Amino acid sequence: TGAYVLIPPNETRRNQIQRIANKELENLERWKEQHRPGPINLKPQKLGGTESEAEARQKQHIRLLQSKYQQKLKREEYARIKKETEEAEILTMKMIQREKADKLEEQRRQQEKQRRDMFNGDHHFKTTELLNRLDLGLPKRNSCQMANPSPDPTAWTRSHTYKQSLQEDENRKLQEMKAEQRRKGELLELRREQEEQERTKVHQNEQRRVNNVFLDRLQNKSQPNGIHQSGHFENMDRFGGDSWHSRYFK
Prior knowledge:
Blueprint: H1 11-34, H2 53-137, H3 143-147, H4 154-222, H5 244-248
InterPro entries: EPSTI1 (IPR026185)
Protein name: Epithelial stromal interaction 1
């Protein structure tokens, strides 16, 4: 397709570069041989501490178990703090809702009072107007009788008494409903406290059972290394201060 020119390689230049590369490789190998590190001669010395291998293994095993229980305690502490935070938030929400309910109840009372005042005023006005109309429709009397009019208030009294009884019945039913709701709330609160006590007791029993299982397992594993059958360690001061049992299961 296209013309090209083939240039033959320069054999002299290639051989020269090859000789230089071989010489550099020989120099590198010679330098490595000259700078090779010699044998290390150290005086023998005893390594490790005063504890035996069995004691070190036992101590390592105890530290591992302690770290596991520390993680477990941290998780329980985190769960407890989270639960307390949630309960505090729930109580705050309840307080806010209670305040809103109180405000609504106070607003309802004020509106009811305003309606009652308006009703009483309108009722008094209508009653006065009716009495005036009746007074105008009555036959004329002498001056003494007109100075002291005394219309018969029997119908108005019966109507007013009936309305008052209806209002009293409504108030009584409302108070009974409020008392019933309050009693239900107290029962729910008591039931919640009982359930919380039951959950706490179950959690404590489960934790006590897990601790006993852990002590029994640790006792069975540590019996060949100088631990009594009673489940307590012998001379735990060598592991540093008080026993881990008193620190983690107090």
